[in-house]
Amino acid sequence: MRSSNPVFSRRGFSRDNGYAGFNAQQPQAGGPAVGTNPYATNPYAQDTQLGAPQQVRGDVMTIDDVVSRTAMTLGTVVVTAALAWFLLPVDEANLGKSYGIAIGAALVAFVLAMVQSFKRKASPALILAYAAFEGVFLGVISATVSTYISPGVVAQAVLGTMAVFAGVLIAYKMRWIRVTRRFYGFVMAAAIGFILLMAVNALFSLFDGAGDGLGFRSGGLGILFGVIGIILGACFLALDFKQVEDGVTYGAPREESWLAAFGLTLTLVWIYLEMLRLLSILQGDSD
Prior knowledge:
The protein is an all-alpha fold. The chain has helices spanning 38-41, 63-87, 95-118, 124-148, 153-173, 181-205, 219-249, 256-286, and strands spanning 2-4, 9-11. The chain has a two-stranded antiparallel ribbon. Helix 2 crosses helix 8 (256-286) and helix 5 crosses helix 7 (219-249). The longest helix is centred in the last third of the chain and has 31 residues, at 219-249.
């Protein structure tokens, strides 16, 4: 069972209902109605009549587990980003070298994230390694933007990311956002289209001396696509919250909290990069 966040495919959403990470399984035709059989509504329940061991209550996922593991993962990103900021200078003499290291770290982070996405079980070491390499990339990129565009743009991007997270969380808790099959399908279709457009733009930028490609990352179009990217990230936050909520409700194994932390980190990194890009364009246009 897999879902997707803006960048990588990962486990979490049932193919039966299309969106619920640990949601109720649909009853088979001719089978008992949901509610008459506890194992028909909880994919993590175990049938003790068949001799399977009943899951110990302490081994199920809780909100505290998700919060602590997300804090560890995001903390790793922040620490390595800060180290990269100070240890990999982006002045004219060292910019090329630092950029090369950053791109290498981004590629390693991508590979690690893809490996985790296709694993059946969460690997804390793999997830934390991804966070470390991702942090190196973010640190160099952030230092470059702060040095050559605006010293305050990074703080603005961080605050903007936190505001999006808080806003989506409040909207989700108030049920202003309802994660349904239609919502899931719309977000996935929009994300695939967005990523394909950005890939085409990056491809064209290789043959463009100015590096603007089709113009999706500069000027008016850049602002528009930056806003779209942030909105997509917010939508994927709602999907992540649904995954966490269902995991806690249906007694997912505690190890699933690492997958929840992994997904939330990927989404927050996506939102931060889109926010940083959007603010950079706005700052550049105002100069």
